[in-house]
Amino acid sequence: MPIVFDGPVTPDALSTFVRQVPPSPAFALDQILPNKYLDKNSVDFAELVKTNRTARFRAYDGRLHVSQRDTFSMKEVKLPPLSTSLSVGEYEKLQLEFARTQGTNQSALVNAIYNDAENLTGEILNRMELARGDALTDFKFTMMGNADEPVGLEADFGAPSGHLVAPSTVWSTVATATPLSDLIAWNDTYVADTGSAPGGIWTSTRVSRYLQRSAEVIAAIAGTNTGRTRVTIDELNALLQSEGLPPIRTYDASVDVDGTATKIIPDDRLLFVPANPGDLGFTAWGVSATALELVQANDADMTFENAPGIVGVVEKSGPPYREYTFVDAVGMPVIANPRALMVADVA
After folding, report:
1. Tens digit of pLDDT for each residue in 111-158?
2. What are the residue ranges spanned by the domains of the chain?
């Protein structure tokens, strides 16, 4: 379908608009995998496994110690396209009205295009947040396996040994589970593998409530014979801090997938993440085919430097003639340093 350059909304104006559409207030995973804009459609990233080795004292004129090199590997991940479109709402009716009034009612058609573009951009942002949650759950980004996202397309970033964990007793068994002991043990593994403490613990409200009702946690805070059945979030986080653990952050966002409300991160999971955004990885946005068309077109002002990210255009097909609002992107989450993530299935 050809791009409409002389329509009521130009590609430059529509692309500027869609890039200003905010994500849902419930979304926050770009704080763990922040957005990064690339001038290509693949990600080449190096995984450098650094070990906190030491030098050696030696006697004068003694043999020099020969250290080991850190391991280094290159990986390339292709960025998949991420697109959606809508036939311009009430397009034929609006065009007739536009012709009848000799161009004085153009604002209705403009509003229809912008409204559709806003909704479509929301769909793009929803899918990318779902992709982040997918990668953060199992160290893999996987296509859904439906007609639009063929099964078998997967980027496996490699879960380090000991970073996909589960407790011996699920935390929903609040009388006998040992979540505080589990968190301390996992934290120790995280520190040993990364050389630094995790910066945050992300989990669902459901799991947080299990922690608040845990007999082990209550005993650590108030003793064993108090008759208390739960602790407050503030008490829980104060206990975690006293054990050198980061506070709990709850995340419960969900999106609609083919008519089904779907948790972005399953509500039985708990994540250890690094303190600095980007230490784990990033969300890569590349240059879509549509953006390249705009860069190469004489009728658009988009430069190659501005091409990465979401773009929006109006396209026409026919006969019969139809116009579509089309929002296009390429991108995916990338876990570049898997050691900086630990995932526990706790409930």
Report:
1. 888 999 999 999 999 999 999 999 999 999 987 656 566 555 678 888
2. 11-52+72-158+282-333
Using alpha carbons, list the distances in angstroms from residue 132 to 32, 60, 199, 286, 335.
Answer: 9, 54, 18, 16, 9
- Report which secondary-structure segment, H or E, holds 112: helix 106-138
pTM for the model: 0.86
What sign does the CA torsion over 214, 215, 220, 222 have?
A: positive
Which CATH superfamily is 11-52+72-158+282-333 part of? Answer: putative capsid protein of prophage domain like (3.15.30.10)
Identify any residues that bridge with 84 across adjacent strands, giving them in sequence order.
Answer: 327
Query: Which residues lie closer than 8 Å to 27 by C-beta, 6 or more apart?
Result: 125, 129, 253, 264
Size of the chain, expressed as the number of residues it contains: 347
d(CA 282, CA 337): 10
Nearest to 201 by CA among 211, 213, 215: 211
C-alpha span between 201 and 10 (Å, rounded): 45
d(CA 16, CA 312): 8
DSSP label at residue 104: T
Backbone angles phi, psi at 325, to 5 degrees: -90, 125
Q: Tell me the pLDDT tens digit for each residue of 169-187.
A: 999 999 999 999 999 999 9
Q: Is the peptide bond before 247 cis (omega within 30 degrees of 0)?
A: no
d(CA 30, CA 200) in angstroms, rounded, equals 14
Nearest alpha-carbon partner for 12 in 298, 227, 250, 230: 298
The single-letter code of the amino acid at 294 is L
Beta strand extents in the chain (DSSP E only): 35-37, 42-49, 71-78, 81-87, 140-142, 154-156, 164-165, 200-203, 248-250, 254-257, 260-263, 269-273, 281-285, 311-317, 322-335, 342-345
